[in-house]
Specification:
five-stranded antiparallel sheet; 3 helices; binds guanosine-5'-monophosphate
């Protein structure tokens, strides 16, 4: 699989500080920020700081340190946003997954009953 990365995507611009974001948490490996169009009371995006287009790209090629740092950010976002009642983690991927931004991101959605997983 060829995971060609376009460094002009919107999340790359956020990482470079060219576009502002509402940061929820940050470490050396990942940045978490509020989604600009939230679909639930909690809607946070967690992105790696490295150039990965998708979850499968990140899982294949990211270092153990980057992967651990990303998962630490997931834990911190869940703690900070207080989603103890439950949440959904989503990684939309490529065409069938309807991925809009080609920089790997995990959505964390919560704060209300989210319903069943798939609607269509
Ligand atoms: P995808 O469909 O790729 O899984 O999700 C992309 C998400 O990025 C969408 O939920 C969309 O609202 C969010 N998004 C797009 N542009 C921006 C932006 O400039 N800032 C922030 N914070 N979120 C964005």
């Amino acid at each position: 699989m060829d995971f060609a990365y376009d460094d002009q995507n919107i999340f790359a611009k956020i990482l470079r500080g060219e576009i502002p974001n509402k940061t929820v948490y940050e470490n050396d490996h990942a940045l978490a920020f509020e989604d600009i169009a939230p679909q639930a009371p909690v809607h946070v995006l967690i992105i790696p700081k490295g150039a990965y287009v998708s979850l499968d790209h990140f899982a294949r090629d990211a270092s153990a340190e980057d992967q651990a740092g990303f998962m630490q950010a997931v834990a911190e976002v869940c703690r900070i946003t207080d989603v103890g009642a439950g949440f959904r983690a989503i990684a939309n991927t490529r065409t069938h997954g309807v991925q809009d931004v080609p920089h790997y991101h995990m959505h964390i959605l919560g704060g209300r009953q989210l319903g069943r997983m798939l609607q269509g």
